[in-house]
Amino acid sequence: MKKQDATVGEQVGSQRFSVNVPHKFSIHNFKVLTFCDHCGSLLWGLLRQGLQCKVCKVNVHRRCESNVAPTCGVDARRIATVLSDLGLTPDKISNSAQRRKKVWTTWL
């Protein structure tokens, strides 16, 4: 494989699995009752109730904007489905992390 082809492959691979994509929030006027996708509270008011991402349509309070993970465009439900199909569930992941921690503490 040529050096240029390897570089292109690395760039594509790194973009494919990138979840550090910031949201593009703008002030939004919601016409129906809408809840914050971060904290779950109602976005209240008559006008300019909150922010909405222009790309993935995530709705948040202005106060929650700084706490939202930079995962714009990432389909978390699909990722969870794929991981569960592979047999990786949150309890198994946390158990393996605890086992690794126990191994390290016994070495020390």
Automatic annotation (TrEMBL):
Pfam families: C1_1. Keywords: Metal-binding, Zinc. The keyword Metal-binding applies. Residues 22-72 form the Phorbol-ester/DAG-type domain. SMART domains: C1. The keyword Metal-binding applies. InterPro entries: C1-like_sf, DAG/PE-bd, PKC_DAG/PE. Signal peptide: none annotated. This is Phorbol-ester/DAG-type domain-containing protein. It comes from Xenotaenia resolanae. The lineage of its organism: Eukaryota, Metazoa, Chordata, Craniata, Vertebrata.
